[in-house]
Fold each of these.
Amino acid sequence: MRYLGAGSETLKESSEAPALRREAEQLLARAEAAAAPKTLCRVFPLAADAATGTYSLLGADGAPVLTLSGTLAHTMLEGCHKAALLLATLGLPFDSMLRTQQARGMAQAALLDACGSVLVEEACDRAEAALREECPGLYLTDRFSPGYGDLPLTLQPQLLRALDATRLAGVYLTDTCLMNPSKTVTAIVGLSTAPRQARIRGCAHCALRDTCNLRKDGKRCDSL
């Protein structure tokens, strides 16, 4: 419900909140049945270039498959010797279901869209959990993605190529670097032999921290 802003006390106390929650739960069950989730994960050696301030994920031939620069990349990857690329998608069946719902009514479509966001984030969490199991003794950074902070969306083509995402997961890009199916998430995770201090989750790093209804109620979305 937090994807709809329904974590705030105002909405919780609304007479419409119970019905909205029931409807969301029903749509979530339908979305789970319709979705065809896929996840991809691949770990690459990471090379830092102090002269240029860049971090390159290296392919099997030692050539860069993805090069990152900027404040966010430095914050997250400094001290890491490897980096993983993750992808999670709900597939085209969910998009088809969403389009059908949009034709019937935008209110339920908004609920369904929020359900899709929940499901794709859960898929990302599962992929990250599997990565942790595959990398014992290593410490993981938080996930971060193109389009977040100063990391541009224009990195998406290289990221998808590095994962062979079109062939393996049916994910492709529009001319504006938006992904199809629509409920698809890509992310980068740094791996290090030492505990990582840099984090981007939480209120201090959220762009909505000054206007968030949950914060006004003394709550956090990651605790709901």
Note: Residues 35-91+118-223 form a domain with the NADH Oxidase fold (CATH 3.40.109.40).
Amino acid sequence: MLLETEQTLELGAYKATQDSVDEYLRSTSDALPIYGQAGLAPPLYSAASALGILLRKLALPPGAIHSLQEVETHSPVAIGSDVAVSAYLEKPRRRGGLEFITSVCTVTSGSTKSLTSKSTVLVPSETPREGAAREESAAESAVESGLTPVAKAITQEQLNAYAVASGDDNPLHLDAEFATKTQFGGIIAHGMLTLAFISEMMAHAHGRAWL
């Protein structure tokens, strides 16, 4: 896998159409009316779109793990506006049979920076073992935010829809036969999908469509 690192890549542009925003909202089961009322796309729509474009550009091997994500919103993206995406790729790091690839995507609408999205993807350098055991992490104490919780039941149908809406078709989320051979022992949800639930919770609590 050859990557042009430590430089900025222009990843192209897309239009934040009403149809694409609606498709994204359906895939995340976000029924808040605030986006349509404000005429704005939710921020995770922009972050997910940027990540999907980046993943297609990188053409990572199946099973790459999206492990870390930071999103900073600067200004809203209006539905119907033209959006451009660029990415700065940091020099990959290696540790314990994994290659860590970190990128910082910048989303601009018009001439205004709308969002910065920092993603780290882990690429295994070894073929996953057959029936690899799932790693259990230590339980963490729940953090009280004071916000009304959002409860979701994630289905395979939703994962399929989110893969189409976001452009993230990693087989870890879609292919049961492939996923059972990984350390997870089965299909896992997209990290950006679960992050969208937090975005929905914040938008509901604060009444702002672009949080």
Note: The domain at 7-132+152-204 is CATH 3.10.129.10 (Thiol Ester Dehydrase; Chain A).
Amino acid sequence: MNHPPFSTWLYEDCQLTPSQAEELKLHLQTCPDCRQQRDAWLNVRHMLRTAKPVEPRPEFARRWQVSLAERRAQKQRRQVRVTILSLSGAVLVLLLGLIAYFLATSSLADLFASVIGTSTQVAVGFMQVSDFINSLLHFLPPALSTAIWFILTSWICLLSFVWVFSIWRITHKGDTSHEEIH
């Protein structure tokens, strides 16, 4: 059956204009295919409107919530993997780019000497900072030294607690497995 626009008018839920309704009525009187299709559509619409809603199986909500939690956990793991792989790839590309740049602009011996020189400077810098802190602690009175260590230790403990609590909150965000589902 190919009777435009009648074939589409049969299935439209919008109100037809009076002239369109008259055209459709005349067409249905002369076309048995369209009339049969209209009757079938009216039967289907009636069945859809009068059908009773299907009740979900028992425990459906609980199973669905459990599967939702599992899907969320999988999604989070996938996002973590993608993030780690993306960052690793970016670092690898950056390192390869730096190596290529340094190899193109200088000789291997110059690079080796530069790496050794920089490593030595970093080690010397750490030793100088360590010597400065040691001399500072030797010159300060013992009570002040103890107070500094106490304050420093307190701050480290506080920051460690905040860090552990933050990690715990991030990993348990949205996790309802420890709550009873009603």
Note: The two ends are 54 Å apart (CA to CA).
